[in-house]
Design a protein that fits this description.
Layout lengths: L2 H9 L7 H14 L3 H15 L1 E2 L6 E2 L5 H4 L4 E8 L2 H10 L4 E5 L17 H8 L6 E4 L5 H16 L4 E3 L15 H9 L3
Parallel strand pairs: 3-4, 3-5, 5-6
Antiparallel strand pairs: 1-2
The structure holds zinc ion.
The site of zinc ion has 8 residues, from helix 4.
Length: 193
């Protein structure tokens, strides 16, 4: 494959980018912004080398413990379960949640081969059983798979005598948390049950 085609193929791996958009991006860079290309390549290499997962909550982190987990002043009684680091960032931006997180890095989707092992359910249960945790807030998305994930986790937590709550409705059905406005998220959080 020549260099242009392999650039287009690489760009097509990005979400929402099809053949046409990938072509447009490749031609744009080559024609109008060649200096951006080594910067982009450098940023990609640095990101893949430096950004790993937090040992405790699994979110993206350049250090073994992420900023939130390393912050001893947060509320250790609360543990909020989200699907992605982007969802976690959305909750952080509301400024209304002061507990800790656990990031599943996905949601249950048996047809895609994503089961309880892939979302780290065992690690979550161990984390939730730690001293001081009083409530696990299930903030998975309001999609069918997100709801199923919340249900399975709630059952597993209940079996271990750990209280869990779910974000209140108000977050539109079918939506990913990261795209919901902050006021709505904050509301869903305070109205959890
Ligand atoms: Zn962390």
């Amino acid at each position: 494959m020549n260099a242009l085609d392999s650039l287009i193929e690489a760009l097509k791996r990005l979400p929402g980018v099809g053949q046409k958009s990938a072509q447009r991006m490749a031609y744009h860079l080559l024609q109008h912004d060649r200096t951006a290309m080594p910067r982009l390549a450098g940023a990609l290499t640095a990101a893949v080398e430096r950004i790993k997962h937090c040992e405790r909550c699994h979110t993206f982190s350049e250090t073994p413990l992420c900023i939130v987990c390393a912050d001893a002043k947060r509320d250790r009684r609360l543990l909020c379960v989200v699907e992605t680091p982007a969802d976690q960032a959305a909750l952080e931006r509301t400024g209304s949640y002061l507990g800790y997180y656990f990031v599943l890095l996905g949601r249950l989707s048996p047809l895609d081969g994503v089961g309880t092992r892939q979302i780290g359910a065992a690690e979550l249960l161990a984390r939730a059983a730690e001293d001081g945790v009083e409530e696990v807030i299930l903030a998975t998305s309001f999609t069918a798979e997100g709801e199923a994930t919340a249900h399975v986790l709630a059952e597993a937590l209940r079996a271990r005598g750990i209280k869990s709550t779910r974000l209140a409705r108000g977050v539109p059905i079918g939506s990913e948390l990261e795209y919901v406005d902050l006021g709505t998220i904050a509301h869903a959080l305070s109205d959890r049950r």
